[in-house]
């Protein structure tokens, strides 16, 4: 065997192992497509779905429904794609805080149906950075309701494009899973839990109802030469089998830290999944923190809160520099990552939709006691 043959054999072995792991982890009907990054996967999904719509619903407008405060790259990319094509438009979706994903989807789909347009919905579950999970029964209902166009024809049913980066272990796609009756494509950024931060990659899978869309998505992935590299397949093949355990360990650390913060600073508003949701399997390892503020006016309160965010992060990264980093990350093999989403992941989000709160992502491999100590000291200093 020449070295080239060995390389080829390794690639096919690593690719087969990666695809088998993803299928098992996601309970998907389709095989996975694996890309060189999460955003290149998402690009192929968008272009594949546009291509599919041009063929199957020629001449109809295409609407990408995008949460206003989702990961900035998603938001930005969707708008760039839409800007290139006359018949493609982005429609805003309000998903958390005062808004509920399900009722927002209902409103938007009702309008798109009357326009006889093609609805493609992008959503993150749980939402980021407020870590909210919609009522999934209601989500299924709203997505599978048959609607009519203005002249009484049956409207085109939506495709739900689910960014599962924050909970890649949840089963949405199997025949007995919650979204089986809705055309659903799920994708995840592989630089988070799938590889534990060891490479950029991304993958997408479909349920049975959406399987027919995968050929078009694959076409666009290959057209852009964006399939994962040999090294990315090698790393994913190595890391994916331990992913669910890493997710479980990181959740334990996160919920421990959340409980500690709640006890030490009860006036902080913490955005994290409830214990009920965790029992259902939603075990993210990220939470966000609205620190208690002071001031006469709303502006003063906002200014004080923003200063506190910086103070907390500064204390963490200077006192625990080997573990606490001021950077956007999630699902890493070790350490703890702090960011203010408004200044990082929501970079391209409209100012009014940004969140000036502190977001923390933990791993199961860090000195939690030391982090609690620094947090307790922070509380003492601000009281
Ligand atoms: C929720 C979410 N989706 C998608 C992406 C994009 O993935 P990637 O960085 O692998 O392109 C990211 C992060 O970077 C993310 O946080």
Largest sheet: 7 strands, mixed
CATH level 1 name of the largest domain: Alpha Beta
| Chain-averaged pLDDT | 95
Please identify the oligomeric state: single chain
The overall strand count is 12
N→C terminal distance: 69 Å
Number of helices: 11
CATH topology grouping of the largest domain: Aspartate Aminotransferase, domain 2
Small molecules held by this entry? pyridoxal-5'-phosphate
Give the percentage of residues in beta strands.
15-25%
Strand order of the largest sheet: 1-7-6-5-4-2-3
Radius of gyration from CA coordinates: 21 Å
Uncertain residue segments: none
The residue fraction in helices comes out at 40-55%
Total separate domains: 2
Backbone shape: globular
Examine the secondary-structure arrangement and name the CATH architecture of the largest domain: 3-Layer(aba) Sandwich
N-to-C order of helices and strands: HEHEHEHEHEEEHHHEHEHEEEH
Can you say what the CATH homologous superfamily of the largest domain is?
A: Type I PLP-dependent aspartate aminotransferase-like (Major domain)
Query: Structural class of the secondary structure composition?
Result: alpha/beta
């Amino acid at each position: 065997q020449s070295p080239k043959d060995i390389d080829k054999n390794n690639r096919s072995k690593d690719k087969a192992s990666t695809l088998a792991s993803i299928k098992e982890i996601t309970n998907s009907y389709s095989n996975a497509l694996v890309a060189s990054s999460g955003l290149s996967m998402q690009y192929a999904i968008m272009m594949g779905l546009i291509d599919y719509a041009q063929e199957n619903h020629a001449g109809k407008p295409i609407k990408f429904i995008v949460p206003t405060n989702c990961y900035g790259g998603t938001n930005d990319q969707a708008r760039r794609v839409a800007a290139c094509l006359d018949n493609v438009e982005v429609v805003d979706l309000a998903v958390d805080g005062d808004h509920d994903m399900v009722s927002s989807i209902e409103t938007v789909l009702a309008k798109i149906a009357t326009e006889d347009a093609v609805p493609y919905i992008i959503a993150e579950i749980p939402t980021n950075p407020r870590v909210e999970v919609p009522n999934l029964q209601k989500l299924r209902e709203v997505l599978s309701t048959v609607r009519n166009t203005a002249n009484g024809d049956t409207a085109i049913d939506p495709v739900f494009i689910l960014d599962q980066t924050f909970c890649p272990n949840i089963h949405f796609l199997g025949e007995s899973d919650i979204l089986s009756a809705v055309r659903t494509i799920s994708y995840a950024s592989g630089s988070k839990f799938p590889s534990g931060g060891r490479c950029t990659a991304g993958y997408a899978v479909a349920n049975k109802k959406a399987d027919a869309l995968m050929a078009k998505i694959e076409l666009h992935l290959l057209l852009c030469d964006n399939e994962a590299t040999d090294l990315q397949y090698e790393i994913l093949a190595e890391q994916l089998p331990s992913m669910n355990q890493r997710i479980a360990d990181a959740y334990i650390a996160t919920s421990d830290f959340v409980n500690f913060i709640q006890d030490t600073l009860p006036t902080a508003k913490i955005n994290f999944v409830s214990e009920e949701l965790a029992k259902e399997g939603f075990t993210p390892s990220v939470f966000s923190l609205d620190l208690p503020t002071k001031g006469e006016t709303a502006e003063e309160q906002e200014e004080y809160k923003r200063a506190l965010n910086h103070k907390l992060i500064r204390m963490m990264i200077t006192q625990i520099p080997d573990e606490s980093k001021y950077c956007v990350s999630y699902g890493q093999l070790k350490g703890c990552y702090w960011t203010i989403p408004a200044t990082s992941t929501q970079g391209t989000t409209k100012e009014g939709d940004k969140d000036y709160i502190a977001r923390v992502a933990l791993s199961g491999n860090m000195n939690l006691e030391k982090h609690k100590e620094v947090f307790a000291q922070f509380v003492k200093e601000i009281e």
